[in-house]
Amino acid sequence: MRPGLARLGTSFGNGERDARVFQRDEQAAAYARAKATVPSRARALIDDPDGLCGAVLPWLRERARLDGIAIEASGEPASTRARYRQLCDAIQEDLVLVRRTVDGRDRAVFVDVCFPSGWAPEAIVGASFAAIHAPVPGLLDDARRAAAMVEAMTQKGPFVRFVWTLSADDHLDHHPLRGLRRAFDPEAELWLRVERQVTMPFPERDAALFAIRTYLYAVTELEAGQRVTLEAAVAAMPEPIARYKRLASARPLILQRLRAMRDGLQTASASRKTSDESSLVQVKPGPGAPDAR
Predict the structure, then answer these.
(1) Beta-ladder partners of 235
(2) Which of 83, 96, 191, 216 could form a disulfide linkage to 210, CB 3.0–4.6 angstroms apart?
(3) Which residues contact 247 (CB under 8 A, 6 or more apart)?
(4) Strands, E, within the chain: which ranges?
């Protein structure tokens, strides 16, 4: 697995939204309700002896405002943790702040992650970037690579990357101890789970922000071409990555489901052609339809 970084603002077909750190949409209320179910003891976790959190909070609030997100102005909380909680409740992203100290070590000084994909956010508070990402196959092959990535995210950018997996439910919160994650079975609907990860540098403070937005897409609602691409990716996925994504044991079932969707579409298409071939000539591809060439 490799970083796959692009500059924030790179066009992915979403207009001005691609340049935003915080992407607010019509599902904001649902995300807020989901965040409200996470225990307060697991929210806005701070281990910040140098005061980084308080120093960058005004920038975060202003960036949220520029991205079209209103934060309650009245009743300003007194504590830094409470102010962060207010900010994090207003956005759909999860946030992590990483700080590099004068001796070159780095650590997570702030964590508010409500929608983890199978890991425990409370366990990474105070941990290094290398320790946090150690389970990811191939991402950090040695200590020098980890140091280079920390250097890039604190001094360069901002960057954006996307990571994905599949799940058998549409719960945003897959904390391993909260029991919301469903096992794959023949009756479960397949969901494509995509994380948009933005890194924002604060070079003058040798620090960086991670903003993680989780999106869920029902696989049945993807375009046919997207499902074909997904099927190929699942089939070609190296075993270590499949194990990391918790897809290894379910891969045969997932591929069976994806192939059934493809075969069903092809069968339906052939049936339509046989029953009314003349009318097919009048069909025009809609926006985003694959190019037959």
Answers:
(1) none
(2) 96
(3) 165, 166, 234, 237, 254
(4) 6-7, 45-46, 94-100, 106-112, 159-167, 191-202, 207-218
Q: What amino acid occupies position 177?
A: L
The region of weakest confidence among 58-67, 136-145, 203-212, 236-245 is 136-145
**Is 67's pLDDT higher than 50?**
yes
Find where tokens 């003891």 sit: 41
Instruction: Determine the Cα–Cα distance for residues 226 and 290; give it in Å rounded to an integer.
Output: 10
Query: Each residue of 75-109: pLDDT tens digit?
Result: 678 899 999 999 999 999 999 999 998 888 999 99
- How far, in Å, are 36, 111, 288 from residue 41 at the CA level? 12, 12, 45
Question: What percent of the chain is modeled with pLDDT above 90?
Answer: 75
What average pLDDT does the segment 102-129 reach? Answer: 94
Tokens of 130: 């290398």
Q: What's the distance, CA 21 to chain centroid?
A: 13
- Would you give the DSSP letter of residue 18? G
* Residue 94 C-alpha from the chain's centroid: 9
Q: How far apart are CA 169 and CA 166, in angstroms?
A: 9
Closest to 200 in 3D by CA, of 55, 16, 21, 46: 21
Beta-strand relationship, 207-218 and 94-100: antiparallel
Domain spans, the chain:
6-162+198-217, 227-272
Q: Is 210 helix (H, G, I), strand (E, B) or coil?
A: strand
pLDDT of 273 above 50:
no
